[in-house]
UniProtKB/TrEMBL annotation:
It comes from Sphingomonas oligophenolica. Keywords: Membrane, Transmembrane, Transmembrane helix. The chain crosses the membrane at residues 5-22, 34-55, 67-85, 91-111, 131-150, 162-193, 214-238. Coiled coil: none annotated. The lineage of its organism: Bacteria, Pseudomonadati, Pseudomonadota, Alphaproteobacteria, Sphingomonadales. Pfam families: DUF347. This is Membrane-anchored protein.
């Protein structure tokens, strides 16, 4: 297997934030607007996630549409996982945030003990890819719980929450380029925080004005963001600017 994860460019972070926003708005759209309910939506999206993940796992290299399709579905399922614990089981966001934090740390611990690396530049075996996707799922669930905890439970509102998470990502970026944070730690911290950032942006755009949002609705926002994601993924598929360095058709491999 070649490395199954794209090179981290600005396109990576843009699509990631858009995907997390779609995860928030898409879950709400399927749950409420289409009337599937939380349990029905969770079952449907989990089945679809298993299907697209199987397609991704069967590939021996990074293929943009396969990779980002899994990310979008993981975003939705991660959101639904948190919603189920909060709305169906009645767990507080404090408990779900703590639980997903422990689950993510445990995933990283076992991953490192077994593979001796957490680098995304070495996702080149089925085992490492399985750990990678498990970690991604827990980052989405943790980000959803943490984001809701900051924006709703604390009463700060969606805009303030988005500014907090955006500022935290900026601080991590400065820390990385200043040599205070290693690349692996900086990446995973930023990856976790892009989830609540995207969720806060999604809620800000879609929620009613009386609830602190702009009232644009889940369907228009989800539709526009999905179109942008498709456009960017198509661009990456054609240009291959984010193809891993070990890929035969990557710019560095062909240079």
């Amino acid at each position: 297997m070649l490395n199954k994860v794209p090179y981290v460019t600005v396109f990576f972070w843009i699509i990631k934030i858009l995907a997390t926003t779609v995860g928030e708005t898409g879950a709400d759209f399927l749950n409420v607007r289409l009337g599937l309910g939380l349990n029905g939506t969770s079952v449907v999206m989990t089945v679809l996630l298993v299907a697209v993940l199987a397609i991704q796992m069967r590939s021996d290299r990074y293929v943009p549409w396969k990779y980002w399709l899994v990310v979008v579905f993981l975003s939705v399922v991660g959101t639904l996982l948190t919603d189920t614990l909060t709305d169906e089981l009645g767990l507080s966001l404090y408990i779900s945030t703590a639980a997903f934090t422990i689950a993510l740390i445990a995933t990283f611990f076992v991953w490192y003990r077994r593979e001796h690396t957490l680098s995304i530049h070495e996702i080149d075996s089925p085992t490492r890819e399985a750990f990678y996707w498990a970690a991604i799922l827990f980052t989405f669930a943790l980000g959803t719980a943490g984001g809701d905890l900051v924006s709703e439970t604390s009463g700060l509102g969606y805009l303030t929450a988005a500014l907090i998470f955006g500022g935290s990502i900026a601080a991590i970026t400065v820390g990385y380029y200043a040599g205070l944070l290693g690349p692996v730690l900086a990446f995973w911290l930023a990856y976790i925080l892009t989830r609540p950032l995207g969720a806060s942006i999604g809620d800000l755009l879609t929620q009613a004005k009386t609830d602190g949002g702009l009232g644009l609705g889940t369907m228009p926002v989800s539709g526009v963001f999905l179109v942008v994601i498709v456009g960017l993924v198509t661009y990456l598929s054609i240009t291959k600017v984010d193809a891993p360095a070990d890929a035969p058709d990557s710019p560095s491999a062909s240079a």
